Every structure is written in C-alpha cells, then in structure tokens.
Amino acid sequence: MAEIVAAAAAVHAPQLLSRPPYEEVEKLDNSTDALHVFGRVLDEAEPDAVLVIGIDHLETFWLEAVPTFTLVISEECEAVYTQWRRRKKIHTSLAVDLLKGVIAQDFDLTYSQEAELGHAFLTPFEHILGDSDVPVIPLLINTYLPPIPSPRRCYALGKAIAKALAERPERIAVIASGGMSHFPGTARYTAPNYAFDKWLIQETAAGRYDDLLGLTPVNLDEVGESELLTWCVLLGITGGELPGTLLSYQELSHHGHGVIQFLPELESSATEGSGSGRAVQPEHEQLPRYGGHTFTQDDYVYYRFPDPRSLPLNRFLRQIVTQADFRTTFVKDRDGAIAASGLDADEREALAADGFDRLVELGAHPLLALSAWQVVKNQLATAH
Q: Less crowded by CB within 10 Å, the N or C end of the chain?
C-alpha cells in the first residue's frame, strides 16, 4: 500500500511571490524559510508523488461552474500568479486511480484535464518543490464560494483518498496549502483572529482535532479560517491523530502565516517558530477553546453567496486579475477601461476609486476585489 512519507500544512500568501516593499519583508522571509525547510524534508523523503491540496481564489474556476472538490489529471499543470509561473508534471496514472477510487466511495469528485492553477499551488511549487522533478497531483477544495464543504466532509474525503491509495505502491508526500486566519478583501482585512490561530497551533501540537472538525463552514467564515479545509483533508489522509510541529508562525497585519509539519514526526520545543526552528505552545500557557472566541454568526458574512446581479462586475475584476493584456490596458488608461466596461454608474465610480471596500459593498467577491487592487498596485510600482 502507498506510504505517506511526508506531510505539512503551509501558507501560500501571494506576497511570498510578489514580495511587495510595503509588506513586513522579514516576516515574509521567515515564512519562505520554513517552506524551504519542508522542501529539504521532501528531498530526503524521496516521494514518488506529491499530493498538493490547494484552493481556488476564483483563478482556476469561474462562476459558470463551482466544483466542491476537483482533481487535476492532465499530464502537466501550470500554476500562475501575474508574471510568475511554474509547470509541474502530474503523476497521471496515480491521479486517475485516485479519482476512480474516491468516486467508488460515493464522493462526487470533479476532474479537469485543462486547469490553470493559481497562487495556492504556485507558492508551494516555488518555495517547497522548487526545481524538483517529482510529479504532483493537484486537488482543489472550494473554500470561498458558499456553500462550501464542512471540515468533517473534507476529513472524510481525506479518509477516502487514503483508502483509494491502499493498493498503490508509491511513496506519497502531502502538502495542505492554505491558512491561517485572514479575511482578504473584506472590511476585516487588517483584523485576523490571531488568538484562534494560536489555539489551533496548540491543539495541533497535541494531536487534538475534534474541535476543529466539529466547526461549521459558517464558523470558519467568522474567524477567517475557511482555508483550513485543506488541512482537514490532510488530517483524513494521515489518520487524524498525528501531532503537528510548528516550523513558523508569523503575524502579518492582514494574515496569520503558519507552516506545520506532520510527517516525518519531529521532536518539538517551546521556542518561537522563526522559519528554521520548531515550536509548540508550552503546556503552562494553555489557551481556551477557539482562542476564547464565541461564535455568533448564523450565516456567511465575509464570503457570501455571489448575487447573480453582480456577475458583470466580478467578470471585469477577474479579467484584471487573470488577463495580462487587459490588466495593462486598465493600468495605462483606467478611465477609458472603466468607461468601456458597460457597468453601472456606482460600479464605475467604485472602480475609479482607490481601495476595494466599495466594490465589495456593490457585490464584488472580496477575493476578486482585493486581488485586482493588489495586481494593479504591483504593476504600477513596477512601472515606476
């Protein structure tokens, strides 16, 4: 049966690729250093394939179809973020067997032979796998377009994956690309729930996951943790009892960056994770459940179901994010591009303004609003 020889959960923030000067560069370095540490672990583990469990920031799929779980089974894949890109070979025979094996267990798994992946894959491709020629198997989890799956459902998917791998002889590594607390594009963009992150690090160090798996998708929305769904799949694959050792945790103004290694198991210490060390919460500093957070939401607040009336605005923003020529035209002649957009007056006014809050108020998906603002800002900075 297939052997899981390495496993980690890892931040994939686009700033780790673009490294904008207005960010806290030292903290970005700590995060990438930790990713490189796990990259060396993979080199030593010598896997035959790496299952990369990532998410879609509305880069791969679009509102014409929103699959919950998608396996990429082409011969190669390409991950792209603005001018950065990397191609990786896919272990196609293993991916096809995985697809068949999971569907046989009553999981309705979508597959794609022509998916362009986003920065949730590009960041681990760049900073963990680098120039390694080990093939990958990309798996996408819907985390930002409600309704999204529950932690328990993602854990069950992981168990189904483990069962589907039972007849394969390969050595497999697993990367869960996502997390930790952040609210990209929303009014809470600069208010992550760091306390929840630290509680989760504490629980992971102890191998306790029942409270995490018991959360609802709406709970995850409330604390900015929907990307933890990739972690839940990893936990299902590894059995849900392994402790994780912290390689790095960084509090950026808008994002908790975490890198946690599950396999090979490590001896942990109580030192501060800096990118090259390991850390857990000391026993005498036990944090309360959920970091003291009391859940109050009864529906999605930060990442709501997209109103179909906002489709033209969201389409325009996605073109800025994903189409280089369109983005360049927008940067060079914003007024002209907005005037030709066909959008209504309020939407055109919001596009002309700085920031993204008003766009979100008008129905723009927060990820698209933020991403469009970021890529335009980065291109303007490059031009100067």
A: C
Residue 286 lies in a domain: yes
Q: Looking at the 3D structure of the chain, how many domains does it have?
A: 2
Supply the range of the domain harboring residue 181: 3-292
Distance CA 300, CA 283 (A): 34
In this prediction the pTM is 0.92
**Residue 257 shares a structural domain with residue 121:** yes
44 lies in the same domain as 191: yes
Q: Decide if 113 is inside a domain.
A: yes
The residue written with tokens 């607390």 in the block is: 181
In a domain, 298, yes or no: no
| Model confidence pLDDT, tens digit, residues 116-171 | 999 999 999 999 999 999 999 999 999 999 999 999 999 999 999 999 998 899 99
Structure confidence by residue, pLDDT tens digits, 213-242: 999 999 999 999 999 999 999 999 999 899
Q: Does residue 358 lie in a domain region?
A: yes
Q: What is the dihedral of CA 243, 296, 144, 12, to 10 degrees?
A: -40
Report the C-alpha gap between 106 and 30 in whole angstroms: 41
Query: Can you tell me the distance from the alpha carbon of 218 to that of 163, in angstroms, rounded to the nearest whole number?
Result: 29
Which one, of 171, 88, 198, 207, lies nearest residue 136 by Cα? Answer: 88
In this predicted structure, what is the pLDDT of residue 171?
98
Q: In the block, which residue shows the tokens 């179901």?
A: 305
Considering the domain architecture, whether residues 251 and 330 belong to the same structural domain is answered as no
